Amino acid sequence: METSAQQALRLGVELLGAEDPEDRATGCDLLGDAGNQHAEVRTEAATALVALAGREQEGCVLARLARALEYLDDPRSIPVLAELSWHPDPEVRVMVPNSFTPLTGPEPDGVAVRTLIRLTRDEDDEVRNWAAFVLGFQLEVDSAEIRAALWERTTDPYGEAREEGIRGLARRHDLRAVPLVAELLHADEGAHWHTFAAAQYLGVSELLPYLDEYEPDSFGVPEAVAACDPALRERQDADAWELLHAVHRLCPEFDPVLYQDRFEHGLKLGSGLPAATLRYSTAALLERAGGDPQRAAELVAAELVAADWRT
Helices H, strands E: what count in the chain? Predict the structure, then answer.
């Protein structure tokens, strides 16, 4: 008896062969949803969609096909999406950036990244916007070419694409973004929460006067203020350092270390042992412990005892 996933796969593949373009588009949706929810049919769904891409002519179908590929995480999608990025219909091109997100590795000059860089210069506003968002805020890749593409967007006449260029530079700790983030924070309509995250990435005191314009408990504001205020940051660093030593006293075999991810903000507590997988945000851990580094270390020790932390 067929499972629900197999039924969805079979029906989706059947619809891809329909005469009506809307039926084929529905088949793409069905295969994307099936693969997203059921890993066991992902490969077959991707195979069917990649085959359809080689013969489909209708833009409405290709747009839905590109969107479906986002959920299948199949490397065979990369050349398909790269080809679709040249499609004359912007409704097709605009679907490409998000679909690249799960397929882009750490290489800053791969096909996906090169395609996204080109799409940040697309003639269509929304295509540029989504390409800049994915390149700047979704992917953990960096290079001079990526920064150049994001910097170009900081003067984009389309406001949303401009904001994505600014925030993408901020996420790479590029100080050219500081006055531009300040401008976004000072806008009459207020700032998007992504802009508070951009301020947090930059972590410079020049942004404090602009952050002070917002309610202190607004979403994203406390974290941005904590990153930009030198006194608060010094206190956080001191607490993290005390936490590190407390964990080392309780669990020296864990070999605790402090580090910060390149594309994130805030210190992390982890292990210097390659096999260890437990990681903690020091800010979140200290919050759980009521701000007490010793109590936070005891929480870590208890979790290490309860877990096989070397795997």
Answer: 18, 3
Q: Is the pLDDT of residue 279 over 80?
A: yes
> Torsions phi, psi of 55, nearest 5?
-125, -10
Which pLDDT score is estimated for 307? 75
Q: With 80 as the cut, is the pLDDT of residue 310 above it?
A: no
Does a structural domain hold residue 112? Answer: no
DSSP letter for 120, please. T
Q: What are phi and psi of 112, to 5 degrees?
A: -60, -45
Domain boundary among 69, 103, 137: 103
> For 300, how many CA atoms within 13 A lie in the half-sphere containing its CB?
33
pLDDT (tens digit per residue) in 57-71: 999 999 999 999 999
Look up the CATH number of the domain holding residue 49. 1.25.40
What's the domain count of the chain?
2
Q: What is the DSSP letter of 206?
A: G
Q: Is the dihedral of CA 25, 27, 30, 31 positive or negative?
A: negative
Asked which of 50, 76, 103 is the last residue of a domain, the reply is 103
What rounded mean pLDDT belongs to the chain?
94
Contacting residues for 7 by C-beta, under 8 A, at least 6 apart = none
- Residue range 206-234: average pLDDT? 95
User: Which amino acid makes up residue 289?
Assistant: A
Task: For residues 6-30, give the mean pLDDT.
Answer: 96
Q: What is the token pair recorded at 131? A: 């390409």
* 111 within some domain: no
Give the Cα separation of 198 and 173 in Å (integer): 9
Residue 295 lies in a domain: yes
| Full domain range(s) for residue 289 | 231-306
Does a structural domain hold residue 271?
yes
106-151 confidence digits (pLDDT tens): 788 899 999 999 999 999 999 999 999 999 999 999 999 999 999 9
Instruction: Kindly list the distances between the CA atom of residue 26 and the CA atoms of 9, 46, 62, in Å, as whole numbers in the listed order.
Output: 12, 15, 11
Q: How many CB atoms lie within 10 A of CB 40?
A: 12
Mean pLDDT of 156-182: 97
